[in-house]
Design the sequence.
């Protein structure tokens, strides 16, 4: 965002607030401006932007007045742009973002106050009351009994009906409602009891509640939806402000109540991020609910007499007995290209101080996995850039490959290196940090930015301080964002870091929801939880676009115990695992891949033929080396054959060592492994293997690029290619 654009938008919004309610605006921004003056050395320039003083607007000319003043402010601002540049775009953008958030809330509050005042005029009060009959006719044409109402009537004779209006209703209208609801209940063998109430907070119109269902045709309900729409506006630019003014003016001066249908329930108890409710008999699992205080939650437990809900925000704001509203949608998150380069929370809200997400689409966080017939075989490699993995544990697009190991053994490092290696390969990456330290997430973001990887990456950060509910939905939110791209025909890599903490969060929620616990206090459906998540990773058929999601879930073990409950569960779901050995890590092996316990069940089909050919014997040779190395600890004498095997194993082991953030191209990996396997490094000291590798890469990139190209494009390892490689390696060995 350009600094000029930011400043213009900010001042436009400021003027609107001044026009609508000057006193309120002064109260909001007084403290904020003082903060700016304290924090920014150049804040004196802002003070030079003397805002014009406007006279109170006339009741009948709201839109015209605002339009004229906006033009004046815009011209005034353009003259002062130069004096603002000293602030710096980033700092001013963050201040602007924070002020916009506060301004939206206060703007709506001021608008609502003015609507109430407007309807206090006799002219508008009479007009709004004259619409009561139309609203009642609209309500009565829509009323019906829900399955929840029918279930209630099986155990109770009477279903209560409440008619609430902002002003006293005429007797004929009340009788009309009473007759219609009585006939409706009698048709199913029930009875009704009508309660008539007045509530000035409705401002105008009326609403009818039958059981849990509310048919709402009030001014307050229209303003509720107006506020929701206003909060979804990504930027308060000229067009947005103009539309808001127009919509507000229209709703205020030409109010025509619509009819909104929703269901209400009641909070029974709330504690530890869990809310128990009654009512809402027709609600669905995973549906979003909204509390009176504005907080939202998601239904995770439905019982006969109550509903369990996890709260996304601060649960201390929710009180027992308060109303809870059924939103009518399954929990969803924003999706699309706008997420690339951003850091968001589990709900898709930006937390990177880069402004609002201009998203246009959303997807439910829970979605069925692709059917078997909708999938294609895993046949395309996804190169990690890590030699030990690409050679021994290859990964294909659409695969689910588990990364498992003890704490601090390099699990996250492998995932991040894989993301970095996708640069320029048309693969979108999503990193889901579940229960991680905020400092770690910040370091990862900084590293990805420095490597140019944030351009195609989205980070979903749910730190350890977040609620268990947000940690629970985080991987599902990431999967929903990935699915959008997959069904657009694109390749996606998603990292779940880590599912151990995700399982702990789900265990906490399940225990709070009073679900029966099983092994290690985990609920019985913990396997189903992770299976329905990981099964969403797939390679789609060509008929569906051929997109893919490659999943790299991470699981932490304790003392290398891969037979623990969660590790065994996830191992049985995935297509293989990369096991990082703490002992190898402590010996200096980076990455510390345990070849014996690591496997890729389907990735071999996606591995390039040349790499597959030359790495076929690597696993056996490395296993023999590890066995002999352990035997040699006893100090026994060895023959020449054993000694040669040990020397070769050391060089292979060293050749597979690799530092962080240094991915190696696939063709260079193939050349290195071929050189070491064929004995071209047998005369090289182990201490010189690192130098040998670097100079080998340089030699082929500068002098033998044609050979590299053939290795990259080779579909099968023919004799011609091997001959060219041998000649090039012989030449290099002579020079080294």
Sequence:
């Amino acid at each position: 965002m350009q600094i000029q654009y930011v400043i213009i938008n900010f001042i436009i919004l400021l003027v609107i607030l001044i026009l609508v309610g000057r006193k309120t605006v002064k109260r909001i921004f007084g403290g904020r401006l003082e903060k700016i003056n304290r924090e920014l050395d150049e804040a004196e320039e802002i003070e030079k932007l003397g805002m014009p003083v406007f006279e109170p607007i006339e009741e009948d000319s709201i839109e015209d007045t605002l339009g004229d003043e906006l033009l004046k402010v815009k011209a005034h601002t353009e003259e002062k742009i130069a004096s603002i540049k000293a602030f710096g775009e980033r700092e001013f953008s963050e201040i602007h973002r924070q002020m916009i958030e506060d301004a939206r809330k206060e703007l709506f509050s001021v608008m609502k106050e003015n609507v109430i005042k407007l309807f206090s005029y006799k002219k508008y009060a009479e007009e709004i009351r004259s619409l009561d009959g139309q609203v009642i006719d609209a309500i009565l044409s829509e009323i019906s009994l829900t399955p929840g109402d029918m279930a209630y009537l099986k155990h109770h004779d009477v279903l209560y009906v409440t008619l609430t209006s902002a002003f006293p209703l005429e007797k004929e209208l009340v009788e009309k409602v009473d007759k219609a609801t009585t006939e409706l209940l009698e048709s199913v063998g029930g009875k009704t009891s009508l309660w008539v109430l007045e509530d000035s907070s409705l401002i105008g119109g009326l609403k009818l509640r039958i059981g849990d269902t509310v048919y709402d045709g009030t001014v307050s309900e229209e303003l509720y939806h107006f506020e929701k729409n206003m909060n979804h506006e990504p930027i308060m630019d000229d067009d947005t402000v103009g539309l808001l003014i127009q919509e507000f003016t229209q709703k205020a001066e030409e109010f025509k109540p619509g009819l909104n249908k929703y269901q209400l329930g009641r909070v029974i108890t709330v504690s530890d991020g869990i809310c128990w409710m009654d009512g809402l008999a027709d609600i669905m699992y995973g549906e979003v609910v909204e509390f009176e205080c504005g907080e939202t939650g998601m239904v995770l437990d439905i019982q006969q007499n109550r509903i369990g809900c996890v709260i996304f925000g601060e649960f201390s704001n929710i009180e027992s007995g308060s109303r809870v509203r059924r939103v009518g949608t399954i929990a969803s998150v924003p999706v699309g290209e706008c997420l690339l380069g951003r850091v968001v929370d589990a709900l898709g809200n930006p937390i990177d101080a880069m402004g609002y997400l201009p998203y246009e689409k959303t997807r439910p966080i829970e979605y069925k996995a692709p059917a078997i017939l909708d999938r294609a075989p895993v046949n395309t490699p996804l190169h990690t850039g890590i030699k030990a993995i690409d050679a021994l544990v290859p990964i294909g697009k659409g695969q689910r490959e588990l990364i498992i190991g003890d704490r601090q053994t390099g699990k996250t490092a492998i995932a991040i290196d894989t993301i970095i290696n996708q640069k320029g390969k048309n693969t979108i990456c999503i990193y889901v940090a579940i229960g991680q330290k905020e400092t770690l997430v910040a370091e990862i973001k900084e590293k990805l930015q420095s490597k140019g990887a944030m351009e195609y990456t989205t980070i979903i950060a749910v730190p350890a301080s977040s609620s268990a509910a947000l940690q629970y939905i985080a991987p599902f939110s990431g999967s929903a964002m990935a699915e959008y791209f997959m069904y657009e025909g694109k390749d996606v890599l998603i990292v779940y870091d880590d599912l151990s903490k995700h399982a702990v969060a789900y265990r906490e929620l399940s225990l709070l929801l009073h679900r029966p616990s099983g092994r290690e206090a985990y609920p019985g459906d913990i396997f189903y939880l992770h299976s329905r998540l990981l099964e969403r990773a797939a390679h789609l058929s060509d008929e569906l676009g051929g997109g893919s999601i490659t999943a790299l879930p991470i699981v932490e073990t304790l003392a290398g115990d891969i037979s623990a409950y969660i590790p065994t569960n996830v191992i049985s779901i995935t297509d293989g695992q990369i096991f990082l050995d703490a002992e190898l890590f402590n010996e200096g092996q980076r990455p510390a891949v345990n070849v014996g316990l690591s496997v890729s069940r389907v990735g071999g089909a996606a591995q390039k033929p040349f790499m597959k050919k030359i790495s076929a014997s690597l696993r056996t040779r490395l296993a023999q080396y590890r066995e002999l190395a352990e035997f040699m600890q006893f100090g026994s004498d060895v023959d020449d054959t054993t000694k040669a095997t040990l020397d070769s194993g050391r060089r292979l082991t060293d050749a597979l060592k690799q530092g962080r953030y240094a991915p190696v191209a696939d063709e260079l990996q193939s050349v290195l492994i071929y050189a070491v396997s064929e004995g071209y490094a047998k005369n090289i000291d182990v201490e010189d293997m690192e130098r040998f590798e670097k100079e080998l890469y340089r030699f082929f990139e500068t002098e033998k690029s044609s050979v590299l190209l053939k290795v990259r494009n080779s579909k099968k390892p023919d004799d011609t290619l091997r001959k060219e490689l041998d000649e090039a390696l012989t030449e290099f060995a002579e020079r080294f």
Q: What stands out?
A: The mean pLDDT is 81. The chain is about 45% helix and 15% strand.
